[in-house]
Amino acid sequence: MEEQEHGISLENFLKWAAELGISDSPTRSVPFCLGHSLSLAYFPHAGGRGLGAARDLRKGEVILRVPKSALMTIESLLKDDKLSVAVNRHPYLSSVQILTACLIYEIDKGKSSRWLPYLMHLPRNYDIIATFGEFEKQALQVADAIWAAEKAISKAKAEWKEAHQLMEELNLKPQLLTLRAWLWAAATISSRTLHIPWDEAGCLCPVGDLFNYAAPGEETSCFEDVDSWTRASSFQRTSLLNGDCTCKSNVQECDGHDQRLTDGEYEKDVAAYCFYARQSYIKGEQVLLCYGTYTNLELLEHYGFLLNENPNDKVFIPLEPEIFSSSSWAMESFYIHQSGKPSFALLSALRLWATPPNKRRSLGHLAYSGSVLSTENEINVMKWIAKQCDVILKNLPTSIEEDRLLLSSIDEIQDLHSLLELRKVLSPSGDEIWAFLEANNLQDVKSGSNLLLSRKIKMSMDRWKLAVQWRLRYKKIILDCISYCTQIINSLS
Ligand SMILES: C[S@@+](CC[C@H](N)C(=O)[O-])C[C@H]1O[C@@H](n2cnc3c(N)ncnc32)[C@H](O)[C@@H]1O
Question: Per its UniProt record, what Gene3D superfamilies does this chain match (predicted)?
Answer without folding.
Answer: Rubisco LSMT, substrate-binding domain, set domain protein methyltransferase, domain 1
